[in-house]
Amino acid sequence: MNKLLLVADGGHWYDAFSWFGDVANFIKYLVVPPENYFHNRLALLNNMINEKFGGLGQLYQTLDDFFRKLATPKTAELQFRIPDNFWGSGYTGVSFNIFSGAGVYIQFIRGFLTAAFFLLTVIVCYHKLRTFFTEEG
Q: Is the distance from CB of 76 to CB of 99 less than 8 angstroms?
């Protein structure tokens, strides 16, 4: 009733329906999870995996962080610089990045070494699993 009086006193017509916002917020509270819901669920799942498998979740997290950092490497630079006026007055300095021309080759070597280590890891894991399941207790 107070809201109808506000409308009559010069308020806006939609002030009479402000209860609708309260209802909408209540429905949102029931349906939409809080901001940290998925983070908390993932942490709980990680803890359950660690309890069952003895640190396997932590190992996965460590490997995941490692490969994420490996996927986005920082740009390597090796600068050769001669500053202005080094050889005399009016001399314009020189700057040269030694790795600028080698970037393509470094990417190729990085890809090749990544593939080589991947294959080596697969082979070693295969042999470890094979010996683990074929050993007689």
A: yes
C-alpha 82, offset from chain centre? 39
Q: What is the pLDDT along the chain (137 residues), one digit of tens a residue?
A: 455 555 556 666 566 667 777 888 888 888 888 888 888 988 888 788 777 777 666 777 787 787 777 666 667 677 888 888 887 888 888 888 877 777 778 778 888 988 999 999 999 888 888 888 887 65
Q: Report whether 22 contacts 3 (CB < 8 A).
A: no
Question: Which residues lie closer than 8 Å to 92 by C-beta, 6 or more apart?
Answer: 84
The pTM score is: 0.33
Element containing residue 79 per DSSP (H, E): strand 79-82
d(CA 131, CA 119): 18
Residue 16, domain extent: 2-31
In a domain, 116, yes or no: yes
